[in-house]
Amino acid sequence: MRHIAIIGTGYVGLVSGSGISDFGHKVICADIAGEKIKMLQAGKMPIYEPGLDELVDRNVKAERLSFSTDVGKTIRDSEVIFISVSTPQSENGEADISAVKAVAKIIGKNLNERKVICTKSTVPIGTGKIVSEIINENKSTETEFEYVSNPE
């Protein structure tokens, strides 16, 4: 069983985290949106996906799935981190990766041991290099990490 962090509880993050927990892994879905986390902790779904409420309920009851607003602790307590935040299209048609960059900074500040970091958000080519640089700039130790991209 792996300890997995899903940063972002929108459609991609919540569905991915719920599915991964159903394979037996311990998953914490973290988000800075406190109201969304309260909703999830109360068993209410902020999005609609057929069967999602049952999947979430089953894995919460099995203590494989939980929700938190403490993104830093979630990162520190996990072996694998999925960045699953929104990358809306900007006015010029490009993906806005500011939320991905913000998460990368938080990861860097909380990197306490070797981790696998995966961008699940839809991002443009070259984002992996940007994310890796931000993590390296913000980490306070020589801790290494592996970076992969697995867009939705």
Question: What does it look like?
Answer:
- The structure is a single chain.
- This protein has about 150 residues and is of the alpha/beta class.
- It has one domain (about 1-150): Rossmann fold, CATH 3.40.50.
- About 40% of the residues lie in helices and about 20% in strands.
- The protein has six helices and six strands.
- The chain has helices at about 10-20, 35-40, 50-60, 70-75, 100-110, 125-140, and strands at about 5, 25-30, 65-70, 80-85, 115-120, 145-150.
- The chain has a six-stranded parallel beta sheet, with helices on both faces.
- β1 (about 5), α1 and β2 (about 25-30) form a beta-alpha-beta unit.
- α5 (about 100-110) packs parallel to α6.
- The radius of gyration is 15 Å and the shape is globular.
- The mean pLDDT is about 95.
Strand-helix topology:
Layout: E1 3-7, H1 11-22, E2 26-30, H2 34-41, H3 52-61, E3 65-68, H4 71-76, E4 80-83, H5 98-110, E5 115-119, H6 127-138, E6 145-149
Parallel strand pairs: 1-2, 1-4, 2-3, 4-5, 5-6
Mean pLDDT metric: 96
CATH architecture: 3-Layer(aba) Sandwich
What helical percentage do the residues reach? 40-55%
Radius of gyration: 15 Å
Note the main attributes of this structure.
152 residues, alpha/beta, Rossmann fold, six-stranded parallel β-sheet, 6 helices, 6 strands, 40% helix, 18% strand, globular
Describe the structure concisely.
By secondary structure, the chain is α/β, with parallel strands linked by helices.
